[in-house]
Design brief:
The complex is a heterodimer of chains A (about 210) and B (about 450). With about 210 residues, chain A is α/β, with parallel strands linked by helices. Chain A contains 8 helices and 12 strands. The chains are: A alpha/beta (about 210), B alpha/beta (about 450).
């Protein structure tokens, strides 16, 4: 008997009596200002929100926030940066990126997380090899909590999907929190309405 | 197989007072952070009940869910392997690496690969393995196993880390600045992500509905690995299954809150299919789990999501350190899992508990940990795995407690003895309690003597 059949046979022989699968109830409660809740949660996790000036160009805004940056690699047509992720052939080429720029599909007010998949990253490792990450997020595209977040159809389609919540971090030495562990050192979320309003994920409509 | 002597190993841990005190404080701090998160969520107890029920449902239908996972993962382009035990797991991983000519592997934290003792197996076959999680890397460089399932080097102080890094990766051994140490590891590790031919992760959850798996981390190391080399291998214990994506809401909301007191890990990644042009392999590992599933009293331990909350709250774990358990899994969860691997070797562990039940109260999936600890003690006593001292003490105590007359005589004699006996007789090897504590001085009369004098007339 091969290992697969062996394991499955033993699992089936030993499974205790069937127990039923519970329904997950709704834990919704009124959220006065979802964006404020999102920003507060994100700040707790070490991320920040930056609001660009009315009518100002995003490129200039990002350059002003990262004056030392030489390589700004953008995965969204809304920001030119110095390099478009579409030109990247090998993910290791992103080793020199100072600032990565992506547009998230939606955010989670409960945790301050943003949802990204291979479609948004272009090259997934942009979210980790970059020293800093700038995330554009339509402020209308917020879900209240993770229960809502996990109803997003992207989980059934994306090869790779990730909730990113602030910069990489570690507290492995004496519990001292170090932001900027091995991935991004900072995460800045910029509220910008999606140019194509229909592309913004608005859970209110789909629920 | 030598028996782990938890008490003996702990006594060494306690000798290093600075370390022991910090360890206790640091873990209690995690427990308090967990409390403030859980208390801020009115639905916390409901979530625990749901998580427990979802896990119990999944485990009682595990065969079907494993097949569903395999079917969907395969359809997504992953390769699914099955490993009966640690040896087969290690063999499979080695074969995959060999087929791809991979000689350098960047690895994120996985208790399962520690359980399988995979690292020495692969290293002996010429594979260079870089543990990429900071705590796990510290332990690898110091040639020690992890002492905690979430914070592997929690028993070390910054000076210890500076010494290890100074000796191994060329940092200034006198510089104990924590950001400096973390930054040094970042810079040291980064080139390996770029040159490794393979990456390895564990998984916190595997979803039958989508054939995907979830990895929850904070440092960015798992996603750097998984998104650079052309080969990603994930080792997954068969108990990690969940039926559907929607169930993740329940578990992800509780995992990091229970572990570290943060609302979510910095990075929560969902792997459903390989990147185009790369390969993704999943190794489903049994290694005793299917057998545990058939143990009436103990199968509930398979609900564990490895958050470490039971360890952080346990007064014995906090004061004895993870390494004193002599096993991959330490603390309360280790105490109930380890004997299923080897009853004789780990027979002292169920006694490393005060049965206070705090572990059970904080467990996000409601494992009845302290009840299982008590049941393991019974199993160990029945199978004659008690050490002589404990056995004799219990035999005598059993006899004395069963007879009111003997009990009264013993209490009176002990009270008199405590006041008059020389220290070496009171603090004898049979008095384990007195090893780190002073025996309190006896009251002037026993309770019974007091009762007969004061209340005797009321009878």
């Amino acid at each position: 008997m091969n290992s697969r059949s062996h394991i499955l046979a033993r699992v089936r022989r030993n499974q205790p009596a069937w127990r039923t699968l519970p329904e997950i109830p709704s834990f919704d409660r009124p959220l006065a200002d979802p964006w404020a809740a999102f920003a507060t949660a994100l700040a707790r996790m070490g991320g920040s929100v930056a609001v660009p000036p009315e009518g100002g160009a995003l490129d200039a805004f990002i350059c002003a926030r990262f004056p030392q940056a030489r390589v700004i690699c953008s995965a969204t047509p809304e920001v030119a940066g110095t390099r478009a992720v579409a030109t990247v052939r090998d993910p290791a080429e992103l080793d020199d990126v100072d600032v990565g720029v992506v547009r998230a599909v939606f955010g989670v007010a409960e945790t301050g997380s943003v949802w990204l998949s291979e479609r948004e990253f272009g090259v997934n490792v942009l979210g980790f090899l970059s020293q800093h990450l700038v995330v554009l997020l339509d402020p209308r595209s917020l879900v209240p909590d993770l229960h809502h977040a996990y109803r997003h159809p992207g989980f059934l389609e994306a090869r790779y999907a990730v909730f990113m919540t602030g910069p990489s971090a570690t507290a492995d030495i004496e519990g001292v929190l170090v932001r900027g562990a091995q991935g991004i050192r900072t995460m800045t979320v910029i509220p910008v309405a999606a140019a194509d309003a229909s592309s913004a994920y608005q859970p209110g409509r789909t629920a | 197989m030598t028996r782990v002597d938890h008490a003996e190993a702990s006594s060494k841990f306690i000798e290093a007072k600075d370390h022991a005190d910090f360890h206790d404080k640091r873990l209690w701090d995690l427990r308090k952070k967990r409390d403030s998160e859980s208390e801020a969520m009115p639905e916390w107890e409901t979530l625990r009940t749901l998580a427990s029920a979802i896990k119990e449902h999944t485990l009682t239908h595990l065969g079907d869910y494993l097949e569903e996972f395999e079917r969907n993962a395969t359809a997504n382009g992953m390769v699914v392997h099955w490993a009966r035990d640690a040896a087969e797991h290690n063999q499979i991983v080695h074969e995959i690496l060999e087929q791809h000519g991979a000689t350098t592997l960047v690895k994120s934290k996985s208790m399962l690969t520690d359980e399988c003792e995979m690292r020495p197996f692969l290293e002996n076959r010429g594979i260079e393995i870089i543990e990429t999680d900071l705590g796990e890397r510290i332990q690898q460089l110091d040639d020690e196993p992890p002492s905690h399932i979430v914070v592997p080097a929690v028993h070390k102080l910054r000076g210890d880390v500076a010494e290890v890094f100074g000796r191994t990766i060329g940092t200034d051994a006198a510089n104990t600045d924590v950001p400096y140490l973390a930054e040094s590891q970042r810079r040291h590790t980064r080139p390996y992500y770029l040159k490794a031919q393979a990456a390895m992760t564990g998984a916190n959850f595997a979803i039958a509905e989508t054939g995907s798996f979830v990895v929850c981390t904070n440092e960015g190391n798992a996603d750097l690995g998984a998104n650079l080399p052309p080969l990603h291998i994930a080792s997954i214990g068969i108990e990690k299954l969940l039926p559907k994506v929607e169930h993740l809401g329940v578990f992800v909301r509780m995992l990091s809150r229970s572990a570290l007191g943060s609302p979510i890990t910095q990075i929560t990644s969902h792997f459903r299919a390989p990147r185009p042009g790369t390969e993704m392999h999943v190794v489903l590992v049994d290694n005793g789990r299917s057998e545990r599933l058939g143990m009436d009293d103990f199968w509930y331990s398979l609900k564990c999501i490895r958050c470490g909350a039971c360890m952080n709250t346990c007064p014995v774990y906090r004061r004895s350190g993870g390494l004193s358990y002599g096993s991959t899994y330490s603390g309360p969860i280790g105490v109930i899992i380890d004997p299923t691997f080897n009853l004789r070797k780990y027979s002292s562990l169920p006694f490393a508990s005060t049965l206070n039940g705090s572990c059970t109260s904080v467990c996000p999936v409601k494992i009845n940990i302290h009840e299982q600890i008590y049941k393991w003690r019974q199993v160990i006593a029945e199978r004659h795995q008690l050490p002589m001292v404990k056995k004799e003490a219990m035999r005598v105590a059993g006899k004395v407690l069963a007879s009111p007359k003997l009990y009264r005589a013993a209490v009176e004699a002990a009270a008199a003895g405590l006041d008059h006996l020389p220290r070496f007789l009171v603090y004898n090897p049979f008095n384990a309690w007195g090893r780190q504590r002073e025996v309190p001085s006896a009251p002037a009369s026993t309770f019974r003597q007091w009762y007969v004098t004061n209340r005797g007339a009321e009878r």
